[in-house]
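Protein 1 of 2
SEQ + STRUCT:
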Amino acid sequence: MEAYVGVDWSATQVVCATAVGESRVRGIQGASPTLENVRDLIRRVRDRHPEATEVVVIVEDGAPVWANLFHAAGARVYVVDPKQARKFSDSLCSSGAKDDKRDCVTLAELGRSPAHRPAQFRPDEPIVAQLHVLGAADCEASREFVRCQQQLRAVLRQYMPVVDQALKDVTSRWVIKFLRTFPTPAHFRGLDRVTFEEVLRGSGAHRVSRDVLWAAIEQTQAPWLDSATADIYSARIGGLLDRVELMSTQVTRIAELLNDTTAQFEGRALLESVDGIGPKLAAALLQYGFGSEVDHRDQAGIRMGACPVFKGSGTTTRGVAKGHASMRRAAHPRARRATYLIGRLAQQRLRWAAAMYAHGRAHGQNAATAYRRIARSLLRILTAMLRARH
């Protein structure tokens, strides 16, 4: 016999309700997010239901720490999609009232319904857990890196927009050197070409880039910019350049760690053998699409969000399905982003993908839908390649 525990979580505690067999669901004191407290909760559940041989915990998705804590405490854990839990709650009663206690009861009742329980929760293998951490870090660092560049350019446009246009990449070594030496028009007043060339010597700046920048400097004048204000701008530019260099280092380091981690997967070389798939996309595919196993041909597409969800039932008198297909939003956002990139790169590099894109656009599909359609086909090919190991 099983004791069912519905768990509604927050960052600092959980609210729980238990049931066994066909008995009424009752509340029980929750726990804080420590292994000792969670073990104490499982012990109290067993004391309340001594006839139960196993404790089954049903918890909503969104906080992996709780699922891992309950698993480590010896419970059998099921992680439920919040949308599924809400729809199941609607099937239990017509009331729209919602609070923590009602949510716990709903989850405990869902646990008693085998047809509604998802696959049992299993902790990620160490290699997959590493990919999750690195993937999240890469996404966050890349986003912050772009934000730092945008902030730097926003400041440059305030007092030397022509120079800003001449600097194509504010993360390159020679641009950073130039901005640290001449952060404002006040700093390059009276500057001659010989001194300019001397400052950029050995920085890696191409001749054409130096010519374009020098032309921009000659056109930039800001006589209203006094020395005190220029020093303030200089300090601000220096701080932004520090952040750009820091985030550049972090992005590079994370990319190296991703490369070293994914090298442990046998299928990485096969994935990268497809034109357009590099180390980062291969890491996303291994993390979300394939992992340590290769199964049904569409499973990778489902996990990556490439396979659509059809909403509707039945057919019309002409045999056309009633309803519509929509994007699979239950897939992880990073997986969906990787799917879009895979479809777009395939369309640019593979002839059959370009033909599929043209066909989809001609029949009314938007670009994103056409890219996901291409990605779904490519993921099926990759699944077959990984199965056959060639």
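Protein 2 of 2
SEQ + STRUCT:
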Amino acid sequence: MFGDGLTNICFCKKKTKIIEIKTIKAGNEWLNLSKLVGLSHYQISLKPIIKSGIPQNGLLYCDLTKVKKAINALEN
């Protein structure tokens, strides 16, 4: 869904804040990588509006209140 874009988090400075928007069936690979390199990581897991044949893919809708909640959680 987001390809290898989040792979670059391994080059972030410690305590960099990451917000990941993913499907509920996607794994925790990026969260685990963030923990290994000392980042602050928040996941927003969503149920796809339109499903794909691949469980971790699909069309997602993310309400801005969820993004604001993630930002607030990472700021505290």
